[in-house]
Amino acid sequence: MYLLHPKQLEVIKSKARFKVVRAGRRSGKTILETEEMILHGAAKDDRPIFYIAPTQVQARDIVWEIMRKRLNNVAEFNEQRLEIRLKTSKGGLSLIKLAGWENRENFRGKPAYRIVFDEVDTLKDFFIGWQEIFRPALIDYGGFATFIGTPKKENPNLRRLEKIAQTDKDYACFHFTSLDNPYLPQAEKDKAKAELDYDTYRQEILAEYLDNAGSLFHYDALVDVFSNSIVKEGGLYMTVDIADDGSDKTIFSFWEGLEEYKREEFARLNTEGVIAKIREYAAHDRIPYSHIAVDAIGIGAGVASSSLLDGIIGFKSSYAPIKTDMNIVLLPNVGYRKDAPLVSDYKNLRSQCVFELAGLINNHEIASRCTGQRKECIIEELSNYQDASQGDGKRMATQKEDIKDIIGHSPDASDTWIMRMYFVVKSRATKEQDPIIERVRTEQKMRFEYNKKNQPLNSAR
To answer: What is the pTM of this model?
Structure first.
């Protein structure tokens, strides 16, 4: 057995069912993982243990080689399947299976006593895989799981797990740094501090969370959307994201005020099918057509222009933003207008709605009853939006195609939320602007009278 340092021993000794371990580079994560798997595998017969690395190659290159050296005389190795049959203290065998996250579907329906997830913040769609594949795998044995890694600001799964641990007593959290490893030479610790930039040192060595400075959505607030309680005001709304070619899923999102109370998804709906569903839902939930927005691209254009749906809103990302702000810099005696013009500093309508959504979410003013995979997709998609403004005075959010490249699929789950913001922005551009308009008009009139009064004096000078 390797000699474990005190921070590693805290994790080993913990009886928590789910352990979240945030640790720095070269802090002893890999040794901790292997010792924990061996300890539990050798204690009793027939204990399936899974080790999930970011990739199959990493599982082989890192843990497999350590296991071969560590268990050379007490285990049987199948290198092709990355499986280890470990002799137990009872005279039987336990299975330790290594795999990459890309092969997670192979574990569907297979029971496990313990699962170790390595470098959790590099695992894409982690919570979907955890909830749909691996969490059910622990039911037969009443099993355990360890989530371990160094934090990454772009994919904060560890941070999410620590948030869950705040209210779930089955979880325990542990944090140690590279400096806590007494077996790491002091010269290397000093060199890292001297050579690494400040943020890299904090993240990689101290295992601290770094906020993504350009992120529009605060991650904790985004997660809180699904537990928020808000006052539901403003009536009922429906937003519809229509699959581009009719072969993907069309998503119907239902809102009472700013709470999404229901979501329905259908595969392979054509134009007529989408129209029929909108009419059916509008009648059943008593949603006015003027409170319905559809993605008016592809077959959505036919839906938005249908005579059967007079009054619904056709939403296009490329539309010009809605002018909601007042221009109060006009010179009264030069460019004075009777009605103060409205302006906007957004690149397009989609960017305007994304920024609006971020503001409401960050202030905990939006709620959703979505659960499971739908919830995880929305969190993943929105957490990747950043301020992508290009210095031309127009605010712009990350484009949809760029989000698609980052997450590997089209961000359709959150598009219905973005469309919901159309009605929020539109309302602010109309009735909510009345007091502002009146105030600006009054101010401009005063400036006009002042300039008119002083005009003879200015001319005489």
So the answer is: 0.76
